[in-house]
Amino acid sequence: MIIGIPADIEDMNGPVGGSFGRTPYYFIYDDQKEAGYFVENTAATAQGGAGVKAAQILVDQKSEVVISPQLGENAAMVLRDANIELFQSQDGSLMDHVLLFRDGKLEKLNNIHEGFHRH
Amino acid sequence: MKIAVLSGKGGTGKTFVSTNLTRVINNSTYLDCDVEEPNGYLFLKGPVLETSPVALPIPIIDHQLCDGCKKCVDFCQFNALAYTGKRVLVFEKICHSCGGCEIICPQNAIKEVPREIGKIEKRSYEDTTLYTGMLNTGEESGTAIIGELLKKVSEEDSVVIDCPPGSSCVVMDSIRDADYCLLVAEPSIFGSHNLRMVHELVSLFEKPLGVVLNKTLGDRNPSEDYCQEMGLDILLRIPWSDELGNYNAEGIIAAEQKDEYKNMFTGLLHRIHEEVSV
Questions:
Q1: How far is residue B35's CA from residue B96's CA, in Å, rounded to a whole number?
Q2: Which of B79, B91, B140 lies nearest to residue A46, judging by beta carbons?
Q3: Which CA distances in Å does B141 have to A52, B40, B78, B82, B130?
Q4: What does the pLDDT look like over B51-91, one tens digit per residue?
Q5: Residue A89 lies in a domain
Q6: Residues of B with CB below 8 A from A78's CB?
Q7: How far apart are CA B15 and CA B248, in angstroms?
Q8: Could you tell me if B190 lies within 8 Å of chain A, comparing CB atoms?
Q9: Pairwise CB contact (< 8 Å): B78 & A49
């Protein structure tokens, strides 16, 4: 499984990013290889459509699972159409979330908002 | 001549000034560019004579022809397209109708089709012709409707343009063709702040401008202070009045009720003519 999580800093012991589309990085973790890396979120500074572009980055990274505090409806549409499973983040570091996912302790993400378009 | 009436914030009296000004001009045309919540027709009452839809071209994807090369996704500067591994998704409300994706697609899998975003209604009231732009609920941008509204008038027409509030793209589009900009301001700190914003915008377009101070109370007026500081012409002061408030609430045009108000707006029109002819 390849897991994608928004990240505020490039540190796997750092926290989950507070925003999905505007987070500065994504932590991409390959569960089989037990290896993770960070990709820059080039959508973070987009004027509009950040959620769509950010979701595209995670699709292109071949993510099969995305863990996020919340998600805009456009991003959710892209991720779901790509058959990516969505989970709700909790307190804890990025690596904590990888372990929580592995142990089946994450809840499905229901926190889909209408987006913060033009805000 | 085209006179655009604008203000930074809503509720300062744009429609009040616009409708009254329109009615002291012979054979005038009134363009309601406040497409998110047009209300000029509540004053200039008349049956709808003509309705024309306004549509924008948006891409549709032929999923049979698409081979998933993602060139369209990479090309789109507005992030309106995404490729999910099995198909391209189009986010219509993010699309700016540039047509680039159709051109760039090597498979010819993209065609543009019109998507209706609103409409323009034509009405007539006495000798005034009224065009109302109406943006459908949930749409993000009314600029296309304003573009169509401006096409309804010719150079010779006497036009009053009721602009949207604020100082964003829709306001810029509304004043683009204007010969004169009339800034309506309230006597409050918030009002003066928003007056500054529209003043800066109108200055960028190098349009001649003047100010109407509405709802003046006789004491200190931050909007008047701003006009004095910047050397702006104050063309008219309209004192706070319960009577005007009641007319407005009932959709009545004050200039048609009392000579006092008719003279007020005729005087305003003369001042504008003087300013433009200088």
A1: 18
A2: B79
A3: 19, 20, 14, 21, 22
A4: 999 999 999 999 999 999 999 999 999 999 999 999 999 99
A5: yes
A6: 82, 84, 89
A7: 9
A8: no
A9: yes
CA nearest to B86 within chain A: A82
Q: Which residues of A touch B91 (CB under 8 A)?
A: 49, 52, 74
Search chain B and give the residue with CA nearest A54: B79
At residue A106, what are phi and psi to the nearest 5 degrees?
Answer: -100, 145
Coil, strand or helix: which one is A72?
strand
In chain A, % of residues over pLDDT 70: 96
Q: Using CB atoms, which residue from B79, B85, B140 is nearest to A52?
A: B79
Q: Domain range for residue A73?
A: 14-112
Given a cut of 60, whether residue A118 has pLDDT beyond it is: no
Helix B189-204 vs helix B222-230: crossing angle, to nearest 10: 30
- Domains of chain B in sequence order: 2-54+118-277 (3.40.50.300), 63-108 (3.30.70.20)
Question: Beta B180-185 vs B209-216: how paired, if at all?
Answer: parallel
Determine the distance in angstroms separating the CA of B6 from the nearest CA of chain A, rounded to an integer. Answer: 22
Helix (H) or strand (E) holding B243: helix B242-249
Rounded mean pLDDT of B240-249?
96
Distance, CA of B37 to chain centre = 10
Question: How far is residue B157's CA from residue B266's CA, in Å, rounded to a whole number?
Answer: 18
Domain total of chain A: 1
Residue A36 forms part of a structural domain: yes
* Chain B contact for A74 (CB, 8 A cutoff): yes
ipTM: 0.90
Is A44 a member of any domain? yes
Q: How close B57 gets to chain A, by Cα (Å)?
A: 18
Q: Which of B82, B87, B94 sits opposite A56 (nearest CB)?
A: B82
Q: Does B140 contact A117 at a Cβ distance shorter than 8 Å? A: yes
CATH number at residue A73: 3.30.420.130
Report CB contact under 8 Å: A52, B84.
Answer: no
| Pairing of the two strands B159-162 and B2-6 | parallel
Set of chain B residues whose Cβ sits within 8 Å of the Cβ of A48: 78-79, 94
B70 CA to centre of own chain: 37
Confidence of residue B166 (pLDDT cuts 50, 70, 90): confident
**Residue A5 domain flag:** no
